[in-house]
Structures are given as C-alpha cells and as structure tokens.
UniProtKB/TrEMBL annotation:
The keyword Transmembrane helix applies. It is found in: Membrane. Residues 1-121 form the ABC transmembrane type-1 domain. Keywords: Membrane, Transmembrane, Transmembrane helix. It is a multi-pass membrane protein. GO terms for biological process: transmembrane transport. The chain crosses the membrane at residues 100-124. This is ABC transmembrane type-1 domain-containing protein. One of its GO terms (cellular component) is plasma membrane. Its main location: membrane.
Amino acid sequence: PFWAGAFAIALIVGSYATETFRGAFLGVDPGIIEAARALGLSSLHTFFYIRVPQMWRLALPSVGNHMLSLMKDTALISVIGVEEILYVAEMATAVTLKPFTMYMIVAVIYLGITTVITLVMMALEKHSNRHLAGAR
C-alpha cells in the first residue's frame, strides 16, 4: 500500500509541479533572453544564468503551495492502510478512547509542519526577491 500511495501522490504533485514550471518558463520576459543573446551568452549559459533564476523566482510561491498540499495529501493515503499521522491517531483513539486528545495532537503536529514550511518558503521568496527592493 505504501508504494501505491507514494506513486499516486507523486503523479498528482508531479503533474501540478510540471505545469507550474512550464508557466514560469513561459513567464520569463523574452527581452531578457534577447539581451543575453545580444551580449553573446550561449544557449546553455542563457538557460542556467538568466532563465532558471527568473523561473525560480516566478515558480517559488506555487512550489510552496505544492509542498503544503503534498503534506496534507499524505492523510489521504491512510485510507489504503498506509500508516501516517492520522492513521496512527485513529489507532490510538481505538485504544485510549480519547479522540479529542488524539486529533488535537495531530492538529498541532500538522500546524507545526505547515508553519515551518511556510516560514521556509517566505524566507526563500524574500531571498529570491531581494534585488527587486531597490527597483520599486
């Protein structure tokens, strides 16, 4: 069950991430690419030094959303029997007969994980947009 769940989630997240990066690739200003070519940069250098940093800056907010979605989607694979946080809480509830306590612990764990992911993504966005502060 684990590999089936992992494969299903990988397909879902992979398809969304592919579309995110495709949109970011198309979102890079063609004038910047033209300027790089005018300066004599090769296609490879243009891609890695011009296009990828611009793509990263454009795709970063969506990548953060995909990470949060992936973290929440892991609860869905508990339906097929994969032991994850929610599944363990259900098993503990059957033993302790304290569902509120168990689900509150799970909620705090999920809140902690999402807070950490959000803070890391905010720091990455701030770092990737630091050069734009002077342009405004």
